[in-house]
Amino acid sequence: MVLYPLNLNLAGKACVVIGGGQVAGRKVRDLLAAGARVTVIAPALTEGLQKLVAAGQVVWQNSVFHPGMLLPLRPLLVFVTSSDKEANHLAIAEAKEMGALVNAAAAPEQTDFSVPSKVARGDFLLTISTGGGSPAFAKLLRERLENEYPDCFGEFLARLNVLRQEVKGRPGGSREHERLWRQALTQDVIDLVRAGHLDQAEEEVRNGIIDAGIEPQDGTR
Fold first, then answer.
1. pTM given for the model
2. What would the pLDDT profile of 129-155 be if each residue is shown by its tens digit?
3. Most C-beta atoms within 10 A of its C-beta, which of 62, 87, 111, 169?
4. Architecture category of domain 1-115 in CATH
């Protein structure tokens, strides 16, 4: 089976987590970080989840899952993490019936999507998946990427976004702009960013843009 890679914008989207244990807690924290509206259905919660509920960040339905609980919530994603196998089975069945996507680690044959290991540096995001073949190997790769791509990559991406807006305002059209980015962004720039030399890296990109024939609006060299 070939998985389709996809980054979802979950801001304001309804998501449901079945279960209130440690796994559920990790799912909830990641969903909140992505701006999702999260409902947890479980008869008990970890201390961490209780704090999120008390802070108004999570809606808690204090109950074992039973049919009909998902329908009024209309979730986009349903994470099934309960230790109650019957509750998990019922939640999966209802989610699929209503067209929600299911993540159920204990039932991989019924799982619609997996959540890859990730390295996040602001908007700079790297994900690693082994298709469930070896989570330990995915973790090892993530640790290596964390060392190879430090926090400064997120900061540099923000600078590139400013440059991109400058370039978009210049003549040439999308194909010409694509050509200049291919010329301006080099492996040397990546090496400078990795070493923490962001000003020098930005200067290299600006010079590359000018050499390609489009000068940024502020005329900086």
1. 0.82
2. 887 788 899 999 999 999 999 999 999
3. 87
4. 3-Layer(aba) Sandwich (3.40)
